[in-house]
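Running this now, will post back.
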Amino acid sequence: MVKGKFPGDPLPLTKIEVDTDSHLKIQEDQRCHRCLNKPCTSVCPAQVFEWEEKHIRVNYPRCVECGACRLICPEANILMEYPRGGMGLAYRY
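Update: finished.
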């Protein structure tokens, strides 16, 4: 971090405009059942994915659009598209 550029944590400098439609989708629940470690639940920096009894819950309004979920999923079961224009994450500085 360059000294003097960001006063502390830059996340408060973001604004998330939540869309009514999720930009994250689980293709097939059965693939999640086969996944042993469920890395999406631990790798996502915003904790968007949570295992609940028999399925993955996707709390898409928390997403910071980093794409880690689709890269880490061993079943290639997470579809992520960026939100439509004007929605999603906006950085302000």
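The first helix runs from residue 29 to 34. More later if anyone needs it.
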